UniProtKB/TrEMBL annotation, chain B:
Protein name per its UniProtKB record: ABC transporter permease
Membrane-crossing residue ranges in chain numbering: 12-34, 106-130, 142-169, 189-217, 238-268, 288-313
Membrane-topology annotation of the record: Multi-pass membrane protein
Keywords noted in UniProt: Cell membrane, Membrane, Transmembrane, Transmembrane helix, Transport
KW Transport (keyword) present: yes
Location(s), subcellular: Cell membrane
Keyword flag Transmembrane helix: yes
InterPro entries in the cross-refs: BPD_transp_1_N, MetI-like, MetI-like_sf
Family: Belongs to the binding-protein-dependent transport system permease family.
Domain of life of the organism encoding this protein: Bacteria
Domain ABC transmembrane type-1 per the UniProt entry, residue ranges: 102-307
Length: 285, 322
């Protein structure tokens, strides 16, 4: 860890901006109940209030405070995306490293299975499975984690195969180390850099994917505050955007607020991932 | 003299066989995914209050008493002939629901592709030839933006500018079968533009990478050292070898377009297959979902197949085996 902290001092401006933005989102998500002026599903006032105190970003169709819902959305949307990405990595790297290390029929069976899963576009596959399970947070996390683990599997398998040709693996095998030791102590530390960068990219993908499904009404269910569903609920308002007065302008911009929250976070993560990739590829210019 | 024969037919046949196998396996996955449903389709549709008699009648009507393998073969056989069975929600033949919508979806994807493909290949080429220029830097930052923005964000910004503020195009793309071509193109312009913006960034970046890799090869350097003109190097030496990577890039992005169309159709309330799929998922109308998934997945697999076959055919190294 100190390795990365050391590099932080020489991080380019873009990576610093990205890290700062991620930090702000993290604080909002962690301390949502303390920061948000109203509750997540609390009806705080009349419907469609303008952007003035005490509703700094107005209220929605049910009179809920939009700013509070945006803050809680950070907790719900980002939290679910993070859990999903972690699960996808757990499945993907475990199977990928296993397939590469054991080889033989285990590798063949797993690889062919992953090929079939990847031949179906993930959005289509997710819609198919959600029809069967019904839309719920658990189903969402499991479906997306399994679909996303296919990409992680491919990457970790390829990285591990490169590492397995090294002499120190041969030495460890001759020493009589078991499968678990070789995966944990020899392969994993050497595969960490590309996997960390991939984690960032996968998180962005999962986050956009969950937002898209919520936007379609098939993701997180109301009254949970979630950015994708917030765009869906306020989508029609955009046709009333009119820049003649402050009040009408802010009214029509309602669907863009949660959409911007999504866009900024993904840009921030991408900026940091670019920097990590740059560091781990060893380019020094 | 079998070894002197070109390996191309063998490679193409092998790829086609793999493609056909993938299609069959994927259709089986789509069909059998429903079998995992807890409980039966009959109780799911008829509700908890269904009597054993109504369930038996339902099963008989939809042929649910036959063995699964037999039902799969029958389903696939009918689907290939364009008969997808009956919708559970509306009790209408699915072919009626899908016909116009499938046409609309492919029309929209083709509309976006016709604009996006030439523009992005041209810009990608220019960016690769003038590396480090203003255009090149603009391309890498726009790709970052497009990868990060959700499709609906791009769509709503376009609606805000072109539909609400300028009033040039309608914000809802409600095309009807009786519309003329000109009107249809105007009405569906904003959804097409959304997809063009998303796909162009990817295609430009991938084209650029393919060409940059090519220009770094020794034989291009040799041509430069001979004193050949720059455009001749590009036209005679670089382009024939660039066809395969560029076609692959195009086909991959067309496959992406076919899937990306789902979200865009919902934003613009465009009467296409994607909209039908999302509605049917919400209603849990299995046969319609299966039919739509099968069409989307098959198109996706076929486009990938075409990309690979053209890649094999256009590889100059395979023309003259040693």
């Amino acid at each position: 860890m100190t390795h990365w902290l050391f590099h932080l001092r020489s991080a380019p401006l873009s990576a610093r901006i990205g890290l700062a933005l991620i930090g702000i989102y993290a604080i909002l998500a962690l301390f949502a109940p303390l920061i948000a002026p109203y509750g997540e599903a609390e009806v705080a006032g009349a419907a469609y209030q303008p952007w003035v105190a005490p509703f700094y970003l107005g209220t929605d169709a049910l009179g809920r405070d939009v700013m509070s819902r945006l803050i809680y959305g950070a907790r719900n949307t980002v939290g679910i995306a993070l859990i999903t990405t972690c699960l996808a990595f757990l499945i993907g790297t475990a199977l990928g490293l296993l397939a590469a290390t054991v080889g033989g029929w285990v590798d063949t069976v797993l690889s062919r299975l992953i090929d079939v899963l990847m031949a179906i576009p993930s959005l289509i596959f997710a819609l198919l499975i959600l029809t069967i399970t019904g839309a719920s947070a658990t189903a969402l996390v499991l479906v997306i984690a399994v679909l996303d683990s296919t990409r992680v599997f491919r990457l970790s398998r390829a990285v591990a195969q490169g590492i397995l040709t090294m002499d120190y693996i041969e030495v460890a095998r001759m020493r009589g180390e078991g499968l678990g030791w070789i995966i944990r102590r020899e392969i994993l530390p050497n595969a960490s850099a590309p996997l960390i960068a991939e984690f960032g990219l996968r998180f962005c993908f999962v986050f956009l994917f969950i937002s898209a499904l919520s936007f379609l009404g098939l993701g997180l269910q109301p009254p949970t505050a979630d950015w994708g569903s917030m765009v869906r609920e306020s989508a029609r308002l955009i046709s009333f955007a009119n820049f003649a007065t402050w009040q009408t302008a802010t009214f029509g911009l309602a669907p863009l607020l949660p959409a911007t929250a999504i866009a900024i976070l993904t840009v921030a993560v991408n900026l940091v991932v670019d920097w990590v990739l740059h560091l781990s590829s060893g380019l020094k210019d | 003299m079998a070894s002197k024969l070109s390996p191309i037919p063998k490679l193409v046949l092998r790829r086609l066989a793999i493609g056909a196998l993938t299609l069959i396996v994927v259709s089986a996955v789509i069909f059998w995914a429903v079998e995992l449903l807890p409980g039966s389709i009959a109780t799911e549709i008829l509700g908890q209050s269904a009597t054993p008699e109504t369930i038996a009648a339902f099963n008989a009507q939809f042929g649910l008493n036959d063995p699964p393998l037999w039902r799969y073969v029958a389903w696939l056989g009918n689907a290939v002939q364009g008969d997808f069975g009956q919708s559970l929600a509306t009790r209408r033949p699915i072919t009626d629901l899908i016909g116009d919508r499938a046409f609309n979806t492919f029309f929209l994807a083709a509309y976006a592709a016709v604009i996006a493909v030439p523009v992005s290949i041209l810009l990608g080429l220019i960016a690769a030839l003038y590396r480090g220029s203003l255009l090149d830097r603009w391309i890498s930052s726009s790709t970052l933006a497009v990868i990060s923005f959700p499709e609906f964000f791009v769509a709503y910004i376009l609606i805000l500018i072109f539909a609400v503020q300028l009033g040039w195009f309608p914000s809802l793309a409600g095309v009807t079968p009786t519309m003329g071509l000109a009107e249809r193109l105007t009405v569906s312009f904003l959804p097409a533009l959304t997809m063009v913006l998303i796909v162009t960034a990817h295609m430009m970046r991938m084209t650029r990478a393919a060409i940059v890799n090519l220009l770094a090869l020794p034989y291009i350097e040799m041509a430069e050292l001979k004193g050949m003109k720059r455009w001749r190097i590009i036209a005679i030496h670089a382009l024939p070898n660039a066809v395969a990577p560029i076609v692959t890039v195009v086909a991959l992005n067309l496959a992406y377009l076919i899937v990306g169309v789902v979200l865009v159709e919902v934003v613009f309330v465009y009467p296409g297959l994607g909209q039908l799929l999302v509605d049917s998922v919400a209603k849990r109308d299995m046969p319609v979902v299966q039919a739509a998934c099968l069409i989307f997945a098959a198109t996706y697999i076929l486009l990938n197949l075409v990309a690979d076959v053209i890649g094999i055919l256009s590889n100059p190294r395979l023309l003259h085996p040693r």
